[in-house]
Amino acid sequence: MASLLPQEIIDAVLFSLKEDKPTLQSCAMVCREWNSVVRPYLFREIRVNGDDDLYSLLKLIEDAPGIAHVVQVLVVRNLTPSAPPSFLENVAGSWILIRPLPSIYKLYTHLSIFNKVTHLDVRRCTYQAGTLWACITVLPSLQGLIVSDLQSSLMQSGDRGIIGVSTPTSRLTTLVLRRSYALGTFLKLVAQSPWVESIQSLTMDPNCGLPLWARDILIAIGPSLSHLDLCLRSNFWDFDEEEGRMCASHLSVFVISRLILIFSGGERSSTSKLGSSHSQSKYQSQGSNSQIGFIRRRPGLRNH
């Protein structure tokens, strides 16, 4: 019966059921033909919530390798450091990465088979910078990356070798980094990678405002960047005038959230809204292609 229906109707019905996993599972069990049709919708998005889910996923992939080729969105949360499994102790000296984070390492060894994943969301994990970088750069179709609420352990000597040979093959267009203590290390890796030529949308929301190195990453990405969303402190505005104008000229959207201005008597916070005429006049860029741009911070800045 299903073969008599136009493929467009089948796709529309299955798409409407994409959030109804029990119904999709029932459809997949009808027959082998239905299973092959439903599988891309059933496994379109996979959420790994902790170490137990990770090992269950790896076991599922071993039993049914084809599943990895239909996953488009992979969400990884709450992976924690643990002792290396006994079968890895003999090689732990060669792979320093697996000593503190065997769970992440096992994910790394399997990620490359997820060749259709376009969006990766990593939250509330503890990692080494080189380990996370190695995991992300093996995804060949990655377009969007969200990294949030991460704690980073110190980089070990083995990480540097991994970083040196890990070059992204994907063209990342969207990068979101939120509430992560190791934001600087990660962005420095981004700045040295081919991704700087393809990132169009960048969101940075660290715990303690943006440090001065943020200027370097924005200048590196500048020519391709069209959407920028930042949580700023006033020292971010200390651009060289020419650098600021060059970076601003490429932006079409510029969002400032929780802007903090430094006054002689302390700190006051304000919110900049793109829709207000005050914000547009105060932050108007001299670049012809942008709505809101960069200005250079001057002594005696006051809130009018």
From TrEMBL:
Residues 269-290 are annotated as: Disordered. Gene3D superfamilies: Ribonuclease Inhibitor. It comes from the Eukaryota. This is F-box domain-containing protein. It comes from Meripilus lineatus. The lineage of its organism: Eukaryota, Fungi, Dikarya, Basidiomycota, Agaricomycotina.
